[in-house]
Amino acid sequence: MAKVIRVGLLGCGTVGGGVVRILDREARDIAVRVGGQLLVTRVGVRDLAKDRQLPLPADAFTDDLLSVVEADDVDVIVEVMGGRDPAGGLIRRALELGKPVVTANKELVAHEGPELYELAESSGVDLMYEAAVAGAIPIIRPLKQSLAGDRVRRVVGILNGTTNYILTKMTEEGASYDAVLSEAQRLGYAEADPTADVGGHDAASKTAILASLAFDSKVHADDVFREGIENVTATDISVADRLGYVIKLLGIASEVDDQVAVRVHPTFLPKAHPLAAVRESFNAIYVEADAAGELMFYGRGAGALPTGSAVVGDLIDAARNVQQTTRGPVESVHRGRSIRPIQELQTQYYVLLDVDDTAGVLAAVATTFGKNDVSIAQVWQEGQGDRAQLVLITHRALEGALRSCVRDLQGTEGVRNVASVMRVEAEVFS
Amino acid sequence: MAKVIRVGLLGCGTVGGGVVRILDREARDIAVRVGGQLLVTRVGVRDLAKDRQLPLPADAFTDDLLSVVEADDVDVIVEVMGGRDPAGGLIRRALELGKPVVTANKELVAHEGPELYELAESSGVDLMYEAAVAGAIPIIRPLKQSLAGDRVRRVVGILNGTTNYILTKMTEEGASYDAVLSEAQRLGYAEADPTADVGGHDAASKTAILASLAFDSKVHADDVFREGIENVTATDISVADRLGYVIKLLGIASEVDDQVAVRVHPTFLPKAHPLAAVRESFNAIYVEADAAGELMFYGRGAGALPTGSAVVGDLIDAARNVQQTTRGPVESVHRGRSIRPIQELQTQYYVLLDVDDTAGVLAAVATTFGKNDVSIAQVWQEGQGDRAQLVLITHRALEGALRSCVRDLQGTEGVRNVASVMRVEAEVFS
């Protein structure tokens, strides 16, 4: 087969450059797998003046992005520009034209994925987005194909490399959040404005995409309950350590009473859990399914080449399908499960209180917990002089009850401050 | 689409029963994904008299296995009977008839895989075998599709649950190999005749399949250098522990000078490596690729439902392809890399010697190592009275040189016995 499959590239930054380099380096093998040569014919960029040092003809570049999508000599679209606009409109146009799309655009898929899947389905073309979640880690294809006959019950992920790096350093070096963040920024592991990472927004987007796919339902980024790691202290980490836990920023999507519960927050995770061993900027996704049992997928969640590898894997599939005038499996988001309110979450909690070191404080605190129907599993007090800290781990309780308890604690005699509250996933194995 | 895809099942033991149960339980969802109903119309078994308690019509069963393959009312074959014969002939017949095949048959694929891939390719039908390696863990599809545009450099796997269970118990309880094996047999985790597992044969089969796929070459089970765990002692494990290692039975396939090096043996693995945390009967596969970097896939390597989940995932893909009169991607085993002889392996080694506790022994031992061009990285001596043990870790050396050194050590003055020799993969990250 001598056929050429012509690729239109939208965006040519770090990931786009990675894609072009992989396509060039592995051209011969890729042609065998596709059943035809992959040729990048058009590249849409914002800044035509930039010298990109890539093995592409100069006349392939244009700043008219729509012209790339609509060009007669483009069979497949690869979108690596990021952002919802104009990427969303361009992808919709490509799908309407019957051109398959491969995208690495996490933000777009997290916010508009289910609608885009439906458009791709009605247009009868592929929309692939393996690179949008956890870079090079194959997770979309396993969820969509390998587990197609199974029933997924829970997906738990370390989905953001920057926050996992910060928490790893805090854990292993006993350093403060601020000190580690500054160091990470200096080394280029964290952005100057780190909000998207440390605030959990990036992890929430990825969790939404995984939840949609795992539970065949429309889950959008805004449906995800979200807390960042900004308030995690060295004390929290050392308390967790003494109790047999590590603190990880987890994205957790699960099925509860035919609803989808979906949240991102710093979590006490037992040290024996496979996710607890995921260090530095690595990502990992842990999946529980009825028949398959426990699965974990681990690797690099970001970077030009890892993300490029995932894009090219998708592109080979999409191009092969074009060549064979067929298409891959489609997402099923028609189950229409609703999102479970966070108040109905049932889990364990860690509460750290600054208290007066006087008789009667523990009794007052215990009474407040009892009144709110939150049962205490473990408690200890530390400190001398007039300042002490009270560490409490609860049994499983309703999030709503715990929140009411925390409000009441702020007015409890002898409690100076509720220093930390964090969810404890001790039964994440169960 | 109301079309029915008719499935012929070869074998109906544990895994076959798991497949039938999953197909029954998830029938509605599976029909949506396939675009048609999956119906098991024929089941070939050895013993017709057995009551299998499965949701299948009694007249579906036959002991004429070939009739299942050749039946007009069978569109797809699922082979879960195991063994090379008659499964191999039946699968070849199905492929010749243009019927796609899904198999969980590790032994067959490990010995005849490359030839079967070629037959499937020339017949233009799917041959899928995700379930043949590491049960429910999706590893075939990621290697074949997700990493299709990447270049895999190394695959390292914990591929046998029984041996990983035994080594985990020996490590965590300090017990002897014999004691743990007996306990594992009592609990049903090890077979009465444990040779296939503890001798590394099972892991070697899986390693051959992964090596073929990762390096686009014909690698057969017999090409794999193999050592089992039968001689691993409690002393080896405690020495490894003190040096910062765990002992794991690893299947290692790598590309060296355009050859494929492929081996299974107990290995000193640094505790910080993600594979070191894989406990009990879990399996995991660690992959290094040029662009994707490091990846790991973790889960249940065996069992009726995990294996059934992988079979059904493949079956949905194969049935969808039948429905759309297309086929999935094919294996490329045409690169024709040769197998690297084990003598040319370069790695570090652990050597444990029983020696006389007398002056001059260390010098004699060191001289023997030096004469064989094996350089010593670490050494220490333990023991009192006239009996002592000498622990040595070498720098990277040629396997051939190390073997010659071990022969010479057996004749070295003061050396009573070469108690253990094991490969050390200290640079498995590199």
In brief:
Two copies of one chain form a homodimer. Chain A has helices spanning 14-25, 27-34, 65-70, 87-96, 106-123, 140-146, 161-173, 177-187, 195-198, 201-215, 234-242, 304-323, 361-371, 399-409, and strands at residues 4-10, 37-44, 61-62, 76-79, 101-103, 127-128, 152-158, 225-226, 245-256, 259-270, 282-289, 293-300, 346-356, 376-382, 387-394, 397-398, 415-424.
Q: Can you summarize the main beta sheet of chain A?
A: 11 strands, mixed
Portion of residues in beta strands of chain A equals 25-35%
Helical residues, percent of chain A: 25-40%
Number of helices of chain A: 14
- Name of the level-1 CATH class of the largest domain in chain A: Alpha Beta
How is this structure best described in words?
The structure is a homodimer. Chain A is an alpha/beta fold. The first copy, chain A, has three domains: about 5-135 and about 305-325, 3-Layer(aba) Sandwich (Rossmann fold); about 150-300, Dihydrodipicolinate Reductase, domain 2 (2-Layer Sandwich), CATH 3.30.360.10; about 340-425, Alpha-Beta Plaits, CATH 3.30.70.260. Chain A is about 35% helix and about 25% strand. Chain A has 14 helices and 17 strands. In chain A, the strands form two sheets. In chain A, strands 7, 8, 9, 10, 11, 12, 13, 14, 15, 16 and 17 form an eleven-stranded mixed β-sheet that branches. A six-stranded parallel β-sheet of chain A has the order 3-2-1-4-5-6, with helices on both faces. In chain A, helix 4 (about 85-95) links the parallel strand 4 (about 75-80) and strand 5 (about 100-105). The longest helix of chain A has 20 residues, at about 305-325. The N and C termini of chain A lie far apart (about 50 Å). The mean pLDDT of chain A is about 95. Chains A and B meet through helix 1, helix 2, helix 6, strand 11 and strand 12 of A and helix 1, helix 2, helix 6, strand 11 and strand 12 of B. Strand 12 of chain A pairs antiparallel with strand 12 of chain B.
